[in-house]
Amino acid sequence: MFQVSLQRVARYEREEVEEGLARLLESLGGMERYVKPGERVLIKPNLLSAKPPEAAVTTHPEVLRAVILAVQHAGGIALVGDSPGVGSGRRVAERSGMMRVIEETGAEFVPFEESATVGGTGTFREFELARPYLEADRLINLPKLKTHEMMTMTCCVKNLFGAVVGTRKAAWHLKAGADKELFARMLIEVYMLREPDLNIVDAVVAMEGDGPGSGDPCQVGLLMAGDNAVAVDQVAAEVAGIPKKLLYLESAARNMGLPGSRREEIAVAGADPATALARPLRLPHLSDVQFGLPRFLKNRLRHQFTSRPEVAPEKCELCGICVKACPPDAIRVQGGRLRFDYQRCIRCFCCRELCPHAALTLKDGFLLRLMKKSGRSL
What's the Cα-to-Cα distance from 373 to each of 170, 212, 365, rounded to whole Å? Predict the structure, then answer.
C-alpha cells in the first residue's frame, strides 16, 4: 500500500503551516525518514511565473519555509530550484516571495540553467534535465494543486516538468504537445527518470478555472504528502473532484501499470479526500474532445474539435511574452495587434498560461460548440 497523508491547514500563518507540516509527515515517519545529516536536498516548488503569492500561481512561500526548516532540522542542506515558464528563476522567486524565505532560512537558491542529457527508458530516447535536479542527494517535490487547461490538473508529476530548462520546454510542447495522451506519457517518463523521495502538495489555497496561470484562487485548506507522486496525484484528483476521464496523466500512469496508479493500493491518513471540499474545483474551459479518436481523424478534424486562442485587444499590451513562449512560432505582432497562424498552432495554450494580463481567450471549433450545445457527456 502507498501511504498518502492529508492535514487541515486553514491559513498561511507561519506557525500554523509549520505545525500542519509536522502532523502531515508524522504518519509517514517524519522528515528524518527522508533526509539524513549532511545530504544535499533539492526542494522543487512550482515557480511558473512572476506572480505574488495571493494569485495562487506558485507554491506559497510559507509552505516552502516550513519544508526548508524541516529539512534543516533533520540535518540536511536545503537547496531550492526550478525553471519557470518565462523569465529568470531568480525574478520569479523574488516576485513570488520565495527568495525572501530562502535568504531568511539560509537555504541556497540553485536556478535551473545548466542541463545534462539523460537516456530515456520508454517512448522518448533522451531528455535534457537540470543538473541540480539530477545531482542532489534527495529530491522533495513541492507542487501547488491547480487546474490545467491542457492536462486538466497539475500536481506532483506535472510539477517535475520544471526540471526541463527554459526554452527546452517549448521544444517538448512542439514535439509532443499536439497530442494530450502523448504529452502525458512524456511527463511520466520525465518523472520516472528521477522519482522524488517525498512529495508535499500546497493545497491550502489551490487554483481552479483556467489554470495553471490565469485561474482563480480557491480555498481548500489542505496539505498533502506521500512518497509516491502518482499516488498523491490520485488522491489530489479525488479532493478536487475531477472526473477520471479528464485526467490524462493519471490515465497514462494506469495504462503503463505504474505503482500508485490504482486507487485500491493507496491508503489515506488524516482528512477524508472525498469530503475535503464542499464542491469540486471549477474546471478549465473544455478545449478538446479528440480523446479516443483515431489519429487520422484527429489530424483532419483538429480545428473543429478543439478551441483556439484569440486575443482580447482591450487587455493585450503587446508585451511579446506569448510570441516568445509559443513553441511552433504561431504568433506574431503585426499592424499593432497579435496575429495567430492556426495551421501551425498545436493548442498547447502556453500563450494563455504565461500571459501576465489574461489577454487571451478561447474560441471553440464548430463541432466542439455543437457537442457542448447538445449537452453530450464528454
Answer: 34, 26, 12
